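Sequence in, structure out. First:
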Amino acid sequence: MESNIVKQTFEEAGYLALYDKFNYQFYVTGLFEPVGQQIIIERFLDLYNIDEHQPLFFDDFSFFFKCFHYSYQKNESLCFLQPEWDENIR
């Protein structure tokens, strides 16, 4: 995903300072490159209520995001595979 879209997403979520703090690490590691949809980053930032006054390392942020992204993808694929007509599968 392009860096300007990522920056806009962080800004809309109120985490522009966090983006500025980790901007270089985002670029070097390519953390958001496999993300195809902006909504994934938005939901992550909404779900993880990140306190900017608490110290946060990039490695921790990256770990949390990768776990969330994996879970999000897994959930999406399970919803896709589950037939709506069979109530006994749940």
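Second:
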Amino acid sequence: MLIIDVPFAPTRPGAWSVAVGRRRNLDFATRQSAVEFAAAEAERLKRTERTNVVINIEGADGVWRAFRNTLESVV
């Protein structure tokens, strides 16, 4: 299983850092762009590598929530 993390707040002004497993971090100009990338990357990995992917998105309340590649809640 691979985990993609999308934080609520930028890691620095104008840069949301998305962690894709332990392999890499990518920066995006907006949180929306980061979430869109996470969903697309999760779908690609599921299709090409047959890997289960969970997208963890941090909410404004500081709680991390898990989603599938379709952005449906895991819970």
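Remark: The chain has a mean pLDDT of 91.
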